Amino acid sequence: MGALPRETVVDVLEQRLRERILAGRHPAGSYLPPERELADEFGVNRTTLKHAFGRLVHAGLLETRHGVGTRVRDFLRMGGADLLPMLVRHSPDWIGEIFEVRRSIGALIAERAASRATEAQVAELRRLVAAVAEAKGGEDAQLADAEVHRALARATGNRVYVLLTNTLFNAYLPVRSALVGPFEDARAAHDRLAPVVEAVAARDESAARTAAGAYLSATERIMLEGLADTGRGQGGQR
To answer: What pTM, to 2 d.p., does this model score?
Structure first.
């Protein structure tokens, strides 16, 4: 294997090691080859290798033991949801599982918001959902839509729902451009989401949960179609 580009050597090395780990080439619990062996294989020095290791330790994929070596962590047993963006970059197959959680959590958040939102929070939700209809272009509508969901999470009064919502949005980031389909028509995006806000405003927990479920299912279908189209397009370019 040739030497890596010097200007991005740590970035590229981190990516290649990460791909090996996530692809199972270095299984959970196994130790990586000795540093000198890896450094020679990638054409880098051991300092560069240690920098890449440090990033992967921080990401939760490796752990180093002084005098023993560097071991691959079992991220499915020990990792947290903060790994999702990295996992989505490795394989978009994770999106389907993220959407399953999104449906459950999103419906529950809407239900809780209907029972707990203050008048000020309802006013904020109405203002934010109106901004979806006024967005210029799919990306702006997508971002405006996200702010409505963040506000719904805040309206539950439960900060864990807020953090979960942030985590799910962060998980989309690597493929966000492929998920813009539901937002390309800003008025349609507004009309799908508005019933959720109105059910919350009416303090109707059952209606809020039902409306959120319908919204999440409809947008999920459109987003998965867009992701599939992107995959077919990339396949045709190879």
So the answer is: 0.77
Q: List, for residues 114-155, the tens digit of each pLDDT value.
A: 999 999 999 999 999 999 999 999 999 999 999 999 999 999
Q: What are 162-203's pLDDT values in tens digits?
A: 999 999 888 888 888 889 999 999 999 999 999 999 999 999
Q: What is the DSSP string of the chain?
A: -PPPPGGGHHHHHHHHHHHHHHTTSS-TTPBPPPHHHHHHHHT--HHHHHHHHHHHHHHTSEEEETTTEEEE--HHHH--GGGHHHHHHH-TTHHHHHHHHHHHHHHHHHHHHHHH--HHHHHHHHHHHHHHHT-SSHHHHHHHHHHHHHHHHHHTT-HHHHHHHHHHHHHHGGGGGGG-GGGSSHHHHHHHHHHHHHHHHTT-HHHHHHHHHHHHHHHHHHHHHHHHHHHHHHHHH-
